[in-house]
Amino acid sequence: MTTARQRRFLYAQTGWTLGSVGLLATAGALTLEFVFVSAFFGLALLTALTAPVHATPAWRSRLRWPLVAGTVVFAVVVGLRTLEKFVATF
Questions:
Q1: Which of 17, 35, 56, 66 has minimal Cβ neighbours within 10 Å of its Cβ?
Q2: Residue 35 belongs to domain spanning
Q3: Closest by Cα among 42, 46, 53 to 6
Q4: Transmembrane segments in this chain: where (predicted)?
């Protein structure tokens, strides 16, 4: 059973992702990589901004694994893009 805070967090993450998809589509830059990066930044930002000060609920500790996985995927995407740019210049 979800709590009100969990639902607000989920609604905020969904709104952030849908808003970024809308902005990317409007700008003509809608790619899977950009959607992932914007959704991951939204998750990291929401996690940081909504962190409780005194006590951490159990559901927030489960956010660690999606953040770690997202960080790894983000590092791979940035590494591949950087390598692609360096190889293309030679």
A1: 56
A2: 4-89
A3: 46
A4: 65-83
